[in-house]
């Protein structure tokens, strides 16, 4: 099973159709934008899956956060969990470390 389209690489079957691969592709950053339907999964299951796969950075744009819309950058995956690197409300700058070296403002 493929938890999200950004998680999986696509591969060609012998018939020429594209099917998802369950092996995670090496990514430097995954960005999830929550909805009321996906928020719980984006905050929990997906974050744990990306951390377990060794994705270095996970940016969660959470319009449904309990304390109001927020942006959280997670990093340093270890044993299926991330450490919060930066967090703030929509409109607050979030700095992405190397190799990106840029500041995002979401809101």
Summarize the structure.
The chain is mainly beta and 107 residues long.
Structure in words:
The protein has 107 residues and is mainly beta. The chain has a domain at 26-90. Helices cover 14% and strands 46% of the residues. The protein has 1 helix and 8 strands, in the order βββαβββββ. A 4-stranded mixed β-sheet has the order 3-4-5-6, covered by helices on one side. The protein has a two-stranded antiparallel ribbon with strand order 1-2. The radius of gyration is 15 Å and the shape is globular. The chain starts with 7 loop residues before the first strand and ends with a strand.
Descriptive labels:
single chain, 107 residues, mainly beta, four-stranded mixed beta sheet, two-stranded antiparallel sheet, 8 strands
Strand order of the largest sheet: 3-4-5-6
Strand content: over 45%
> Based on helices, strands and strand pairing, what is the structural class?
mainly beta
**Unreliable segments (pLDDT under 50, ≥5 consecutive)?**
1-13, 15-23
Largest sheet: 4 strands, mixed
Describe how the helices and strands are arranged.
Layout: E1 8-12, E2 18-24, E3 29-33, H1 39-53, E4 57-62, E5 70-78, E6 81-89, E7 93-96, E8 102-105
Parallel strand pairs: 3-4
Antiparallel strand pairs: 1-2, 4-5, 5-6, 7-8
